[in-house]
Amino acid sequence: MKREILITSDGSSTIHLPDWNEQYHSKNGSINETYHVFIESGLKQLAKNKVAILEIGFGTGLNCFITYLEAQKEIDYVGVEAYPVTPEEVEKMNFIDVLNAGDKKDVFDKMHATTWEEKHKISSNFSLTKRKQFFEDIEDINNFDLIYFDAFGARVQPQLWTEDIFAKMFTSLKENGILVTYSAKGSVRRAMQAVGFLVERLPGPPGKREMLRAIKKAT
After folding, report:
1. How far apart are CA 43 and CA 54, in angstroms?
2. What is the pTM of this model?
3. Which residues, in sequence order, are CB contacts of 134 under 8 Å at separation 6+?
4. 183-192 — which CB contacts under 8 Å span 24+ positions?
5. CA-to-CA distance for 193 and 196, rounded, in angstroms?
6. What are the chain's domains?
7. pLDDT single digits (tens) 55-103
């Protein structure tokens, strides 16, 4: 499938799929979306000193990199991606410049250079495991405190937003674990609720009225 580089409203880049009219991040700002949905509504809601994160859709590595930049705790990060981006596409991402993170470029590069299916120490408080895997093949049980659900939208890949998928997410989380996503579709919310999540509607990132946060409440 054809992929193009697109500059979003906050000046940061993303990958655009013209055949689907879909992109890896919001056209209203890649970096703004990451901070609002995944950092402010997810990571910063957890008071634990050690956080295990599962990302559904590792993609360009932006969510992972910003999590590293914002980590005030120990992070064990697992990124799942069925179709990894190419090194050439990574080179065209301008996240380092827009984030003024030139002193951390080696970290961003290391995140993409590390081998798949192995756990790597990125820094003293940040570990990364990249898994080349279809989302429906995830079989983790009570492993994660937080899930970044950043799959392509339900408009183009509805099979990724079903009760079956969210049941896997529910099982993957520890008690009181959190799942955050940019989506606010009613069908998505109902699928989450059907498998046991307590679901909140929250104000969305730029360009979206709402987003969803789902919690696996202790029974």
Report:
1. 12
2. 0.96
3. 82
4. 183/149, 183/153, 183/154, 183/211, 183/212, 184/208, 184/209, 184/210, 184/211, 184/212, 185/154, 185/161, 187/154, 187/161, 188/154, 188/161, 188/212, 191/161, 191/162, 191/163, 191/165, 191/166, 192/166
5. 5
6. 31-88+102-215 (3.40.50.150)
7. 999 999 999 999 999 998 999 999 999 999 999 999 999 999 999 999 9
